[in-house]
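WARN retry 2 of 3 for item q-0093 after timeout on previous attempt; input resubmitted unchanged.
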Amino acid sequence: MSMSDKENKLTGPAAFLSSVGLGRRIVELKPEQCFFTQGNPADSVFCLKEGRARVTVVSPSGRQATIALLSPGDFFGEESLAKTPELRVATVTAMNTCTAIKIRREEMIGAMHRDPDCCEQFLSLLVARKMRTQEDLVDQLFNTCEKRLARALLLMAEFARPGESRTLIPPVTQETLAEMIGTTRSRVSFFMNRFRSLGLIEYKGRIQVHQPRLKEVLLGPLPKYNAETSPVGCAP
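OK item q-0093 returned
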């Protein structure tokens, strides 16, 4: 597939920003390769064109957390646009084969100064990212582990075709899901089995999400837990 064919797959702001004539290059990564690592110099912005990527951070004590999953059309590495260039605040790793546009910091800043439409479109992406981050914080503060897991699965299924109720989500491990919602793998396993028994998800090589039913989990409680089988580690 040619570069132009790949770019035509993007829609909205990502399509606009990938075609404004910026000096840029295409990068292709294999699964588990890193676009950049936490602590690296922040010198460029990326736009994911194909594949899925995982954003992780590591604490000073060595604890790792997955804070976001990226889909085609998502930008990342925007910390490079700060007035004083910073270091990377997270690591972005390809979950499967990925293709992305890499735009150097100076070229992106120049384009935003020259083209008001480019600036407006990119700012809209940053505002959307901020709103998502705020929703994630509210989710962590006020929702149970079960609802946080339901929301994470729904977010991964949000690129379903219109009218499609059952959606295969990208391959993801229970360890990654546990990092995303702040609990243990055994707790995630318990909830996933529970969701499957209630017909909210199915396993067909990959996880298939029944979106309408899973959304109901976010609006109200599921049947009460069996205290003898519910594992300890997160408030039900």
